[in-house]
Amino acid sequence: MSHFSKITFAAVLGASALAMTVTTASARIVCNEDGDCWHAQTEYQYQPSFNLNVHPDDWKWKEGEKHAWREHEGRGYWRGGNWRDF
Fold first, then answer.
1. How many other CB atoms sit within 10 Å of the CB of residue 37?
2. Rounded average pLDDT over 46-71
3. I want to staple 36 with a disulfide (CB 3.0 to 4.6 A). Which of 8, 40, 75, 78 is the partner?
4. d(CA 84, CA 13)
5. Under a CB-based contact definition with an 8 Å cutoff, are residues 43 and 28 in contact?
6. Is the pLDDT reported for residue 27 higher than 90?
7. pTM of the full predicted structure?
8. Can you name the residues that pair with 39 across neighbouring β-strands?
9. Sheet containing 68-69: which strands, arranged edge to edge?
10. According to DSSP H, which parts of the chain are helical?
């Protein structure tokens, strides 16, 4: 193997290893006790007093359950129909 081939092989191997360590963005679905649900792009540590349920991104509510999507940008949560930043 020539010197150039070794360098090329090492570069490809390094890039492959890096690609394997990159993870996709992982969102969460967060719902409050009123049934408002939204996507959180970051895994926040919500205070227990917020009374929120955090679900995986592929979670779906069951038929007959009362939930509604209420998306909002930023860091916070829905309470009583109002977005509260934290």
1. 20
2. 94
3. 78
4. 47
5. yes
6. no
7. 0.66
8. 29
9. 52-56, 28-32, 36-40, 68-69
10. 3-21
